[in-house]
């Protein structure tokens, strides 16, 4: 019986065809250094892709998805969350959205419970507005819009069910070069967040009680 890596290599060589969703579990099943070199070997700057993927994988453990293993203090999460908020302002500026950039710059950072955060995340909030703008920009800025690239992006998303982590790993595949390092640092400390008008709520999914 073929495994996902074998299917992936056959897909990359054009020997077999699959829907891109077939590879959602690829990196959860095949994450050794040799596997990663094989997975990324068909793309530009494979060494950077491998390095980014290894960095993310080292920061988590795989359950249903990759989840961060590090336990951060409330103070450190606030610091990392503020750094991500500042980077969101810079990204909004680069994308030409002065309104969201101003929301980011005017927001305070508030630590809340996971329950409070989840209540906000079901609403239509600026955090999602910026996400949609980033997604559109990166979609338009793909250096290659082949089905192979889209299948890789599905595989990267499937690792942690997190588009920002997928974009962090896949940075060589995009123009413009948006920097998601601050998000990665926040995520691997167990951070979650939601930006609303005036405040960014943050919580730690792995914070010790």
Q: Report the β-strand fraction as a percent range.
A: 5-15%
Order of helices and strands: HHHHEEHHEHHHHHEE
Q: Which geometry do the CA atoms define?
A: globular
Order of adjacent strands in the largest pleated sheet: 3-5-4
Quantity of strands, as a count: 5
Q: What is the CA-based Rg, rounded?
A: 18 Å
Low-confidence stretches: none
Structural class: mainly alpha
| Alpha-carbon distance between the two ends | 45 Å
What is the mean pLDDT?
A: 94
Helix content percent band: 55-70%
Note the main sheet: 3 strands, mixed
Give the number of helices. Answer: 11
What does this molecule look like?
- With 209 residues, the chain is mainly alpha-helical.
- It is built from eleven helices and five strands; from the N terminus they run H-H-H-H-E-E-H-H-E-H-H-H-H-H-E-E.
- The protein has helices at residues 4-12, 26-29, 33-40, 46-58, 74-94, 98-106, 114-121, 126-140, 147-160, 163-169, 181-188; strands spanning 60-62, 66-68, 108-111, 191-196, 199-204.
- The strands form two sheets. Strands 3-5-4 form a three-stranded mixed sheet, with helices on both faces.
- The N and C termini lie far apart (45 Å).
